[in-house]
Amino acid sequence: MSHRHRQSRLKQPSLRRSRHVHVFPILALLAAIATTVVTFAQPGDRSLQSLADVVEVNPNFDIRTFKVDPRWEGNEAAAAFMSRMSPAASLRSDLAASRIAGVAELEKAYKGLTIEDNAALGGTEVVSVEPGSGFLTPATGDRVGALRRFLSANADAYGISAAQAAELELVADYMNPAGNMGYVEFEQKFNGIPVFQGLIRGGFTAKGELARTTGVLATGVEASALPTTGVVTAARAVSLAAATVGWQVAEAALAQKAVDGAKVTLDRATMADDAKAWPVYFPLAPGVARLAWATQIIGDPDGFLTVVDAETGTMLFRKSLTNYQAQSATYSVYTSDSPAPSSPTAALPGANFQVPVVSRTNVTLIGNEAPNTFNNLGWITDGANVTSGNNVEAGLDLVGPDGIDLILTGSPSRVFSATYNPAPGNPAPGDDPSTPAFRNGEIANLFYWSNRFHDLTYLLGFNEVSRNFQNDNFGRGGLGADRVRAEGQDSSGTNNANFLTPVDGTSGRMQMFIFTAGTSVDRSSGIDQDVIIHELTHGLSNRLHNNGSGLGTTMSGGMGEGWSDFYARALLADASENVNGVYATGGWATYKFGNDEAFTDNYYYGIRRFPYAVRTATGGPLNRPFNPLTFADIDPAQINLTDGA
Questions:
Q1: pLDDT tens-place string over residues 179-236
Q2: CA-to-CA distance for 538 and 548, rounded, in angstroms?
């Protein structure tokens, strides 16, 4: 195949997309916490945090149950605090006996009764009856009165007095939209201060029959014996809470901004958002409740709800408010250029240089591992098992009308793998792209590489504010609902690929075509990473230029083509590659391009007039530059296509 013939076939673009505190207990507990810390990060410093950091450095904590958590079981400061604050043995015994008697009475009164205890406090948490065994109360139109009467009548079983049952404050009373289930919720307070997690809910039938109660109340507590003010201020509590997760937030920087009832809002200082603190009673054990500050601190990306003792400053409870994706998925993919990579290439025109296929690699990840912590939902949301996520939906578009007809389901769950043998095959000649296994493998590859491109370019700055492609932008700017739709083996064409870039807020569409190879086995661009990244880069470059309305001239369009080739080469390159080498774009896919039986210089030319090479790289039969193009070659009067190697 002559060079001029190669040029004539590719004239048109071929690929187009905060009084003093007792500090010793505080310091002891903080020191114990710090022993679990591997790496601290200030709020907003993502560079030091990974999923493992968040899970292991700042694990959830409850001082009542720390001994059963292997991450906290050796915490001597927590053990000492619990020992000091434990109720007298006689009180504990009396309360236990009273509850046992109350539970026994309750069990006598109802058939098929189930009572579940709370692990932290040992009190009643769930009371329900088995289906077909009746209900806890008869039908009524007064759900609130029914629940209160039931709790008062069975107060001993719940570890409270009848008077305390009567004092529970109503929080909610409603029916679900379907009208077949009703709910009533009460909150426990002492001295006007809420009990931490002190909510109890009743579930009712459509007729108003009480079927179940859920929730935990502070038991055996005398409100008159409880303090209503503490030593620790709201700002001090926030500063201490921040310290438990490695954030340096000075108490003096936490200026009070607002007060809403008992809830105090404090300046964010070095955090990502304003902090909040409100007083609670923390039920520590039967007969014991500690006055404390509940605090909410928000960093980026992590936030925490922490309860700090208002007398000692001891951390009593901490829960991460950030839900990280935790389920990995496995993808069987080609991790280099294509199924038969050659970068750089040793090909020369006329040599029929071809490359054997390589093995696929199983890659297992969640998608939010450092440095990609911006992927709040990972690549695939926990619980899902298809090639559809926040950044990309990948599948096949085998028939019209336009759209994905088939996406891949993991088998086993969240394993996206297929056994197929692309051309040139091992053994030869390889599988046709239309085989089911090939199609499944191509979807997995498309999904993997489209997500890889999203992550790599996000780190370079193509993020939500820059109008990237995501369904959920997580409040970081830009418009969402526009993930990439990656359509493999698109039925609308062959021997090409394209990327449609609408304005921000509308999905980008990538169409990958089959490349026909005459009498040889066809190849599919959905497993040629040169082509995939080329197309995805069109989405990037077009969004970055006037939100898709730029790059309208011939020259700027050509620049778009060049950027797409460059990103493909740059993102696929590794340190071993020779800077003076010769590189083709789309070398694998273009074998016998467009059914041209004579065209076997695919690993030299790929989709372009000349391969990519530095000007000083020379060779070939004419010992000239492999890529002789200069700026003059955009001028039809000066273009010279005969001065290459």
A1: 899 999 999 999 999 999 999 999 999 999 999 999 999 999 999 999 999 999 999 9
A2: 10
- Residues 285, 279: Cα–Cα separation, whole Å: 18
Query: Where are the domain boundaries for CATH 3.10.170.10 in the chain?
Result: 326-612
- Name every residue whose Cβ is closer than 8 Å to that of residue 272 and which is 6 or more positions away in sequence: 43, 44, 298, 299, 300
**pTM score of the predicted model:** 0.64
Starting at the earlier edge strand, list the strands of the sheet with 361-365.
361-365, 329-333, 415-416
Q: Kindly compute the dihedral angle of the four CA atoms of residues 575, 577, 583, 586, in this order, to the nearest 10 degrees.
A: -60
Helix (H) or strand (E) holding 85: helix 76-85
CATH 3.10.170.10 fits 326-612, yes or no: yes
Q: Which residues contact 359 (CB under 8 A, 6 or more apart)?
A: none
Residue written as tokens 């025109």?
349
Task: State the span(s) of the chain assigned CATH 3.30.310.
Answer: 89-225
Residue 515 carries which side chain, given as an amino acid letter?
A: F
Reported as a single tens digit per residue, the pLDDT across 87-105 is 999 998 999 999 999 999 9
Those residues whose C-beta lies under 8 Å from the C-beta of residue 429, and which sit 6 or more positions away, are 423, 520, 521
CB 517, CB 528: distance < 8 Å: no
Query: Active-site residues: which are they?
Result: 535
Torsion region of 355: left, alpha or beta (phi above 0 gives left; psi -120 to 50 gives alpha): beta
Question: In the structure, what pLDDT confidence band is assigned to residue 324 with cuts at 50, 70 and 90?
Answer: low
